[in-house]
């Protein structure tokens, strides 16, 4: 089958165009990677590269495994069980998402360090004099970093899986129970396989975030592939070598995702009408209830309450230095930029997924590579370290700027100057490239569940694809579009490296303001600004949470009324 | 939607419309230099704008080419000064006043150093007088398990290792690095301040750190106890002198506000700014005869390693390679 035959539908063409624009930074890095890097690689390979790679892999698997270990049971407990405090936990468990990882990392590494308050306190109590006299875990280690990162990233797994479990096909679970499965067995045999796609989608976000992270690893003094990227670039001044390493990392991630996708092909599971769990399946009592409540409490305490307490402690200690009269300006700039980025991301996710849908409908081929690739490629930016992505954004943009200045000068004698990189456009673009993966992935998962029969029905009534998309798909996807948009919003509020490097003069966000102190290891001085980031992120987060719960209730109630079979799709 | 983007874009781009201003790309945290810049604006009426980042400003400047809005770049170490010069992003700084203010060792055609930051050795007070310590001693078995430091690849440590190569050659430096690594009490982590904190808590007795951190700690109520646990020592006083790094400034090749930019650079080399660097940031002024703050003066005078800045910087990538070779940070 030739390419032209597959790529002929307007939405698909639109999505390809978007991907082309979104890929520009990555292509620019690829071109840079082709330049010579003068033996730096050989040097690295001879000395530290193996350790860097194995550290990266350990972090990747460690954080993913821990996020799953925390997020999956909690999601299942909240969706399927009744236990003390469940109503509170169901929303409180998403709170850590509002904490920027670099702030939690700073707080934890400082708090549990040998010279930190916890160990000092222990030494005071027990009269120990030296590190040799007692054992205490080393917070600045791979396990330490894994735990801390998992504590801020698990909410992705939790949030996505909670609604997925709520929509688990209850009939199948009941059937498996009737056939003699224990609750555990039915969990493994029914619930987990049904949500596999969502588990992978959420873990992909967690994994990419982990690989791209630099600030957190830096506090924990862990050298990973990202360290190597920075070393080669800032140490050896070789951007080509740094670009090579970044591309290598991207290729690894792309490969992992492709393998997973391949395994999942043709296992699509369109949601069907039947029984949603209108009530909790299990009522936990005794030690089981205690365990559930205890686990959830521990996670919230470690992921949110403790860091918040430390931040508030800093604010009290340094109360005369933390206020800055420009906070409101910084905050409103953060808000506007994040809002614009979120809107663009949602729009792009719609175009790309409609393109995919349209191509799938119109071809007999269900899985042609050209269909999948817009979504996959457009999601790649998430795995790039922020500063590297920023450089990737600068390269093509400045080329366009120089070129258009030349042309406009020739034709009109007018030079607009840096109309892209000299403005906030560059930051918004970088955010979109970086965070688009969130709505693209989650919309795709939801889209899968909209039965093609609906499209066929709509078409048989004379509606074209676009009309079907707006009358059927958009209403069904409304919640997921809003939810994922808000997640992008929260991430953009916290984002740092790209904003730092790409901002025009006179542009400061809360995150960039905090960073000038954090980079000098004086978070104390910026603790109030850091707290503001968290609080500004809490509002949309609680809306996300509410919506994802409402959608489940909505699905349940409509289901009870035997209404349209597809209302359920809107969730997650 | 489009309207919003347009408005934001316009707002951002019209920002460059003020008559007298200097646009600064800065590798130094704005809160460190703002008091000095405010003085400058007060005196001259020229406004200053800062974009601060820890990395990538050179690349940004390079890509922006002749359209770059930046007039000057402030750096926190000499390697960045030379990188900017070598990349052809600078222009000659021509000013008799600057030539008078700054000793020749600390300026070149294309850059001017503004402050000196000595790479000091902090020692626990319990060790007694260590004022005769040398960098070379850090590899001695006497300090087994006693040394704390930040990452070897941090520009300040990299500068020190480069200067070791310049003085002793690669083979000896490699042996020295191996010795220092063996003496480390823990994997390199944290910043210079965190090492002093570790001394206070008894994890180690010796640490490498820039001199100004001591001033910062002494003036922070919560951190004073850390600083009180250590003595500051300026190494190699009986021989070549203490390694100093410099913070500095360049004038960008395509500066649009050259006059104002030059005025700012000149101001930064004058007594007012130079003494503020000492009183606000506890750094050493480059201009001779500038009065030190009492605190900085109390650390005493010291002999500075006279090796030319460019000479030491030559060995930067060799230093990196050696650090990787001994797996200093791992």
UniProtKB/TrEMBL annotation, chain B:
Q: What is this protein called?
A: Extracellular solute-binding protein
Entry's family note: Belongs to the bacterial solute-binding protein 1 family.
UniProt key word Iron: yes
Q: Which InterPro entries match?
A: Ferric-bd, SBP
GO MF annotation: an example: metal ion binding
Against Gene3D superfamilies, the record matches this protein to: Periplasmic binding protein-like II
GO cellular component terms? outer membrane-bounded periplasmic space
**Which positions bind Fe cation?**
212-213
Q: Which Pfam families match?
A: SBP_bac_8
Q: Which domain of life is it from?
A: Bacteria
The signal peptide here is 1-19
Keywords from UniProt, A to Z, are:
Iron, Metal-binding, Signal
């Amino acid at each position: 089958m030739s390419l032209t035959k597959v790529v002929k539908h307007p939405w698909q063409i639109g999505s390809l165009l978007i991907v082309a624009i979104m890929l520009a930074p990555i292509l620019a890095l690829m071109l840079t990677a082709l330049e010579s890097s003068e033996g730096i690689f050989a040097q690295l390979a001879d000395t530290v590269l193996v350790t860097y790679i194995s550290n990266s892999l350990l972090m990747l698997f460690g954080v993913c495994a821990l996020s799953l270990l925390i997020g999956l049971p909690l999601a299942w407990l909240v969706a399927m069980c009744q236990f003390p405090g469940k109503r509170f936990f169901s929303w409180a468990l998403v709170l850590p998402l509002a904490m920027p990882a670099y702030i939690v990392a700073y707080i934890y590494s400082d708090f549990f360090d040998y010279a930190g308050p916890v160990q000092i306190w222990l030494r005071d109590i027990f009269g120990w004099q030296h590190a040799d006299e007692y054992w205490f875990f080393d917070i600045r280690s791979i396990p330490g970093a894994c735990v801390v990162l998992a504590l801020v990233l698990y909410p992705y797994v939790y949030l996505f899986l909670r609604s997925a479990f709520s929509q688990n096909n209850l009939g199948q679970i009941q059937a498996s129970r009737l056939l003699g499965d224990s609750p555990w067995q039915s969990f493994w045999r029914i619930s987990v396989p049904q949500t596999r796609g969502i588990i992978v989608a959420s873990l992909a976000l967690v994994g990419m975030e982990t690989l791209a992270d630099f600030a957190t690893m830096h506090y924990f003094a862990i050298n990973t592939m990202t360290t190597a990227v920075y070393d080669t670039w800032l140490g050896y001044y070789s951007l080509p070598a740094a670009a090579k390493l970044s591309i290598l990392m991207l290729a690894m991630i792309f490969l992992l995702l492709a393998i997973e996708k391949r395994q999942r092909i043709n296992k699509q599971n369109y949601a069907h009408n039947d029984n949603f769990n209108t009530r909790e399946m299990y009522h936990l009592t005794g030690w089981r209830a205690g365990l559930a409540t205890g686990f959830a409490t521990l996670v919230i305490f470690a992921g949110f309450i403790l860091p918040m307490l430390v931040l508030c402690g800093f604010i009290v200690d340094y109360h005369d230095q933390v206020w800055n009269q420009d906070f409101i300006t910084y905050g409103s700039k953060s808000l506007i930029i994040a809002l614009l980025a979120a809107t663009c991301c949602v729009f792009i996710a719609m175009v790309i997924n409609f393109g995919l849908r349209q191509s799938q409908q119109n071809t007999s081929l269900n899985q042609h590579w050209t269909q999948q690739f817009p979504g996959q490629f457009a999601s790649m930016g998430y795995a790039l370290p922020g500063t590297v992505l920023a450089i990737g954004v600068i390269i093509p943009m400045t080329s366009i700027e120089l070129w258009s200045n030349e042309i406009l000068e020739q034709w009109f004698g007018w030079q607009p100057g840096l109309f892209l990189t000299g403005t906030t456009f560059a930051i918004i673009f970088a955010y979109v490239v970086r965070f688009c993966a969130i709505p693209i992935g989650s919309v795709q998962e939801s889209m899968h569940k909209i039965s093609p029969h609906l499209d066929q029905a709509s078409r048989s009534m004379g509606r074209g694809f676009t009309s079907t998309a707006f009358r059927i798909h958009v209403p069904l996807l409304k919640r997921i579009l809003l939810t994922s948009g808000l997640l992008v919003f929260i991430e953009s509020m916290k984002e740092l490296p790209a904003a730092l490097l790409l901002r025009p003069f006179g542009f400061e966000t809360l995150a960039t303001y905090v960073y000038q102190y954090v980079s000098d290891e004086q978070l104390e001085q910026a603790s109030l600004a850091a707290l503001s980031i968290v609080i500004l992120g809490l509002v949309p987060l609680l809306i996300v949470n509410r919506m994802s719960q409402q959608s489940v209730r909505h699905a349940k109630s409509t289901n009870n009324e035997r209404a349209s079979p597809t209302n359920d799709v809107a969730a997650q | 939607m489009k309207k919003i983007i347009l408005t934001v874009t316009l707002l951002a781009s019209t920002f460059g419309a003020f008559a007298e201003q200097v646009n600064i790309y800065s590798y130094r945290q704005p809160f460190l230099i703002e008091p000095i810049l405010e003085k400058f604006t007060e005196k001259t009426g020229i406004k200053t704008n800062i974009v601060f980042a820890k990395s990538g400003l050179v690349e940004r400047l390079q890509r922006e080419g002749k359209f770059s809005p930046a007039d000057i770049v402030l750096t926190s170490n000499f390697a960045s000064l030379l990188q900017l010069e070598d990349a052809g992003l600078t222009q000659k700084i021509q000013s008799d006043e600057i030539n008078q203010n700054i000793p020749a060792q600390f300026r070149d055609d294309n850059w001017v150093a503004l402050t000196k930051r000595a790479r000091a050795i902090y020692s626990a007070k319990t060790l007694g007088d260590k004022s005769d310590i040398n960098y070379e001693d850090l590899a001695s078995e006497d300090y087994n398990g006693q040394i704390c430091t930040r990452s070897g690849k941090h520009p300040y440590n990299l500068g020190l290792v480069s200067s070791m190569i310049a003085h002793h050659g690669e083979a000896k430096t490699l042996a020295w690095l191996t010795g220092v690594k063996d003496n480390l009490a823990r994997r390199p982590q944290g910043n210079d301040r965190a090492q002093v904190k570790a001394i206070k808590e008894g994890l180690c007795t010796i640490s490498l750190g820039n001199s100004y951190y001591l001033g910062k700690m002494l003036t922070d109520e919560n951190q004073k106890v850390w600083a009180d646990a250590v003595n500051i020592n300026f190494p190699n006083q009986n021989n070549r002198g203490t390694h100093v790094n410099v913070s500095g400034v360049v004038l960008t090749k395509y500066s649009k506000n050259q006059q104002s930019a030059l005025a700012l650079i000149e101001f930064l080399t004058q007594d007012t700014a130079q003494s503020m660097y000492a009183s606000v940031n506890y750094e050493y002024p480059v201009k001779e005869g500038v009065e030190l703050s009492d605190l900085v003066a109390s650390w005493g005078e010291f002999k500075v390693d006279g090796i030319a800045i460019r000479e030491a910087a030559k060995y930067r990538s060799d230093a990196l390679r050696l650090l990787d070779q001994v797996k200093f940070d791992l």
